[in-house]
Amino acid sequence: MGVKMVVWTDRPRTFEAPYLARIGGWTLERYLTEAPEDQIWEFARGEVLVHSPATAEHQRLVGFLYRLLQEFCERTRWGEALTGPAALQILPDVVREPDVFVLAPEDIPHARGVPLTVRPVLIIEVTSPSTRTLDREEKAQDYAQAGVPEYWVVDPEHRELWVYRQSGETYQAERVTAGWVSSVAVRGFALRVEWLWQDPLPSAKECLEEIEQRNR
Questions:
Q1: Whether 63 contacts 161, CB under 8 Å
Q2: Does residue 32 lie within any of the structural domains?
Q3: pTM
Q4: Nearest in space to 1 (alpha carbons), one of 16, 12, 20
Q5: Is residue 191 assigned to a domain?
Q6: Is pLDDT at 10 greater than 90 in this prediction?
Q7: Are the C-beta atoms of 102 and 79 separated by less than 8 Å?
Q8: Do the bridges between strand 122-126 and strand 80-83 make them parallel or antiparallel, or are there none, so unpaired?
Q9: CATH number of 194's domain
Q10: Cα Rg for the chain, rounded, in angstroms?
Q11: Which of 1, 42, 45, 37 has its CA nearest to residue 21?
């Protein structure tokens, strides 16, 4: 049975997952006090964004990307990969909870408490039909404004990876459907886009060995 959300107004309305609910009239202080720690709630300009529960497929892909990046950071002794839900205040009135993000070495000691106020060098979101517009438009604008050098949006349904890289104060977007994609923010890190669509997902350890061979 799918997850449902009931909205009570003059007439109750039921929404089937996946959904993205936007609720106005919130302050940042209220969000930080009342938002649940075990769910994805974001805050943007007076609204909270309530995400439907993630699917197992979404979690597997997020876990694969996190393991790949964290092991890469450990092997190269550069940076740290973190995963959500983690409240990241990227602008004074915007708190996002990215799926995966990477911090530069100098920012790791400052990543403490809630919300985090450090700026990642790379953010990755695994998108879904309910969040595709949010991830590819609104979040891309926010991350660019916040000065995040690189932002990736993984779209499993369409089997495409959108890569956003800083160009002045905005992003230049590139759609990739096959082959290698190299990060400019996490030097040496790359992946084969085809890995993202494999079922089951490949071994992160074997993928890292392929990355290392490519970098030699």
A1: no
A2: no
A3: 0.91
A4: 16
A5: yes
A6: no
A7: yes
A8: unpaired
A9: 3.90.1570.10
A10: 18
A11: 42
- C-alpha distances out from residue 162 to 28, 167, 171, 185, Å: 30, 15, 11, 15
22 contact partners, CB below 8 Å, separation of at least 6: 47, 48, 49, 50
| CB neighbour class for 11 (10 Å; exposed up to 12, middle 13-18, buried from 19) | exposed
Q: pLDDT, tens digit, for every residue of 61-101?
A: 999 999 999 999 999 999 999 998 899 999 999 999 999 99
- Note down the domain range covering 189: 55-215
Residue 15, in any domain of the structure: no
C-alpha of 118 from chain center: 15
User: Which value, to the nearest 10 degrees, does the dihedral of the CA atoms of residues 18, 1, 98, 88 take?
Assistant: 100
Number of domains composing the chain: 1
Q: Is residue 183 part of a domain?
A: yes
